[in-house]
Design a protein that fits this description.
- The chain is α/β, with parallel strands linked by helices.
- The protein has helices at 49-61, 80-87, 109-114, 129-136, 141-153, 173-182, 208-218, 282-287, 292-304, 310-316, 325-328, and strands at residues 16-20, 66-70, 95-100, 119-123, 157-164, 186-191, 223-224, 234-237, 244-248, 261-264, 269-271, 280-281.
- α6 links the parallel β5 and β6.
- The structure holds S-adenosylmethionine (SAM) and iron/sulfur cluster (SF4).
Length: 330
């Protein structure tokens, strides 16, 4: 990343963009959205795919080498595959990954491969169809479960994201670890965060320490794995198992010191920290007719002003009602 010009005031280089392509979704996970009455933004407030492409090109010229496509559910937006195919040709972009709920990507396996996309994160919080229904308020377990194994058979690298919460799915933790016995996938257990579109959040939920002690109580022989640079998860393997698992302190925020990511929401809000307010709305900057060099300056200034960590950023965020992750771009 020698050429990166996206460097914050603490010397952290930004090379990873999480791009939310829509706020809409075909599931209603309790930790992300209310069951009813989710206010989706009018279509004209969303960045068009053309605008997203142009902004992505600009980000890549500033040193972004990895883009994760997220949402909302990325595959519910019409035209997503054509957009991804265009993105895959961007100069400087080394990797496109996608976070999806796994209900729809099965339709696009061949096109995903052709676009060079090899890594998908699938969100699944229970291996029990009934609990899955309670968590997502939709009866899609079989589609998601089938999609995971189809992707593995087709040679994709698959990570499963599982938000752990007391009273919801702690009984699924060991079955998820057991899934790594025969399958070369990675399960990541996440702490629940307060981004559910309301002001209700019980922060006394399962912490990363709780998750670790629960699993290590069952598997005392766990091996800790070498972390990838800038990784947010602490990773382990049960000796002899084909896959591995990780624990992400998404609420405890122990990883901010090496964070290399920024987020662009579907409405153009650029966030340099998930917990902070948007630094700028790039849709508005773009639609005001700003030149490329003006937009570059807006982006580099926003990144330069990034705060030390998610706690400092949260203190700057006056909002009582927290946005949904589907708006922020999870
Ligand atoms: N719809 C896609 C999906 O579910 O994978 C992509 C968007 S979703 C917002 C991205 C990730 O954020 C998912 O893994 C989801 O579990 C996680 N997420 C959403 N709300 C969360 C919350 N309040 N706390 C922790 N993780 C959350
Ligand atoms: Fe939809 Fe993903 Fe949010 Fe669940 S976590 S409601 S699948 S955007």
């Amino acid at each position: 990343m020698e050429n990166s010009v996206l460097i914050d005031q603490y010397g952290r280089q930004i090379s990873y963009l999480r791009l939310s392509v829509t706020d809409r979704c075909n599931l209603r996970c309790y930790y992300c959205m209310p069951e009813e009455g989710m206010n989706f933004v009018p279509g004209k407030e969303l960045l068009t795919f053309g605008e997203m492409h142009d902004l992505s090109a600009l980000f890549c010229s500033l040193g972004i080498s990895k883009i994760r496509i997220t949402g909302g559910e990325p595959f519910v937006r019409n035209g997503i595959m054509t957009f991804l195919e265009g993105l895959s040709g961007l100069s400087g972009l080394q990797e496109i990954t996608i976070t999806t709920n796994g209900t729809l990507p099965g339709r696009y396996i061949a096109r995903l491969k052709d676009a060079g996309i090899r890594k998908l994160n699938i969100s699944i919080d229970s291996l029990d169809p009934q609990r899955f229904l309670q968590i997502t308020r939709r009866d899609s377990f079989r589609d998601v479960y089938a999609c995971i194994f189809r992707l593995l058979r087709e040679g994709f690298e698959v990570k499963l994201n599982c938000v752990v919460a007391a009273g919801k799915n702690t009984q699924d933790i060991i079955p998820f670890v057991e899934l790594t016995k025969e399958h070369a996938l990675v399960v990541r257990f996440l702490e629940e965060m307060p981004f559910n579109g309301s002001s209700n959040f019980d922060q006394f939920n399962w912490t990363h320490e709780d998750i670790y002690s629960f699993i290590s109580g069952r598997y005392p022989e766990l091996t800790r794995l070498q972390a990838e640079p800038n990784s947010t998860s602490v990773n382990y393997r049960v000796p002899g198992y084909k896959g591995s698992f990780g624990i992400i302190p998404s609420f405890s925020r122990t990883f901010c010191g090496s964070c290399n990511r920024i987020r662009l929401s579907a409405t153009g809000e650029l966030r340099t920290c998930l917990y902070g307010p948007p630094a700028v709305n790039l849709r508005d900057v773009l639609r005001s007719g700003a030149s490329e060099s003006e937009i570059r300056k807006v982006i580099t200034d926003a990144v330069a002003g990034r705060l030390r960590d998610g706690f400092e950023a949260e203190r700057q965020n006056a909002k009582q009602i927290k946005d949904s992750m589907s708006m922020l771009g999870g």
